[in-house]
Amino acid sequence: MSEVAGRLSVIEGAKHLEKPFGGSGVLISGVPGVARANVAIIGAGVVGENALKMAVGLNANVTVLDVNMKKLTYLDDIYGSKITTLYSNNHNVEDACINADLVISGVLLPGAKAPKLIKRAFYKNMRPGSVIVDVAIDQGGSTEVSKATYHDDPTFVVDGIVHYCVANMPGAVPRTSTIALNNSTLRYGLMIADMGLEEAIKESEPLKFGVNTYEGKCTCRGVADAFNLECQEL
Q1: Is 21 exposed, middle or buried (0-12, 13-18, 19+ CB in 10 A)?
Q2: Average model confidence (pLDDT) across the chain
Q3: What domains can you pick out in the chain, each with its CATH number?
């Protein structure tokens, strides 16, 4: 689902850069004689890598930020001069946001709340009509003003900046999402059906790591921390 959301983030971001959708009126690819859009991708995980693939494919001017130098080195080797890689710190995140027409946030702390890396203070120096696609909204969002929106009313504007914060972005493309999800999860469902929950968890590490609660107890550290609950080992 992160692959789907990452790819959708660029499509939706490009759409909402259009003037009728509240954007600044920038074509993401530009045309000869006119600058391409600046796209900043924060986080180079599954979401970020898939967003990067789409943004480069649309000929945007792309900057990707992450704290994982090995991942940045890998992306630099793959894309070379087509992208700019930056180590993710407060200064570089602010600078990238200020210069971006489209910001895509794919930061993720598995099972925990997303860090608020994009500050509202940045907005005063951003171009009005710039777009932030907050893919991290399912984990609480990565801007200070993020709130979950829906596919039928996907955006809101704060200080002139368009925020796209749809929870469950893959729901916009249910055929693709369902087939992709089934490809990855069907075997685990069959394990539970064939073996029962407890035996399946003992047999499968991925299933074990997927358990968030059991018999009324929270067994996922990130969820427990996010909601101030006691965490108990499964």
Answers
A1: middle
A2: 95
A3: 2-171 (3.40.50.720), 187-226 (no CATH)
